[in-house]
Amino acid sequence: MPVTALDPTTALVVIDLQNGVLAAPGTPHASSDVLERTVALADAFRGKGLPVVLVRVTAAPDGSDRPPGRTDAAPHVQSPSAGWDEVSDALAGHPEDITVTKRNWGAFYGTDLDLQLRRRHVTQIVLTGAATSIGVESTARAAHEHGYHVTVVTDAVTDVDADAHRNSVVKIFPRLGETGTTAEVLELLGRTAAA
């Protein structure tokens, strides 16, 4: 089903489109395509005076702030390169944007994202980014629990696992909100009055 509406106070929330994440191959959409579509959405949101939130994930070099807990899957431990956690230059550099730094999968827990949105009277979020089944899905779930209308832009999210991406898009997101393409969101945004 295509997205049906954008609230007058909708924010674009971009998940982890940063140097280290964008270096990984995306599926089913190339990371470069997701970035390009997100840049188009961000420019359109800014043009309407609507908030753009750039979420980045980072961690202490020694891993001391890694979320605790035993898991069956081995933790993803790496020595990241310098600048891995910097938002892509294609999105950065707009002083009116809100930057949120997280240390978990989702963008709400342990951050001021909810506060930043509520202070701007935001009632809906439009999500893009990577990875679909991790950062995007976790943020969509929390946004739904916080009472926001949620829209996920299905051609502006990607994953490293095609099955996980498909499960999120087909099974999970329709239960949390609406889904639509970049073109559909841009078309609706074109009908929204500037703030």
Fold and architecture overview:
- The structure is a single chain.
- This protein is α/β, with parallel strands linked by helices and 195 residues long.
- The chain contains 6 helices and 6 strands; from the N terminus they run βααββαβαβαβα.
- It has a 6-stranded parallel sheet, sandwiched between helices.
Class by SSE composition: alpha/beta
Strand order of the largest sheet: 3-2-1-4-5-6
Largest sheet: 6 strands, parallel
Order of helices and strands: EHHEEHEHEHEH
Q: Could you tell me how far the N terminus lies from the C terminus, measured between alpha carbons in angstroms?
A: 27 Å
Task: List its traits.
single chain; 195 residues; alpha/beta; 6-stranded parallel sheet; 6 strands
Describe the structure in brief.
It contains six helices and six strands, in the order βααββαβαβαβα.
What topology does this entry show?
Blueprint: E1 10-15, H1 19-22, H2 31-47, E2 52-57, E3 98-102, H3 113-119, E4 124-130, H4 132-145, E5 149-158, H5 162-176, E6 178-180, H6 182-190
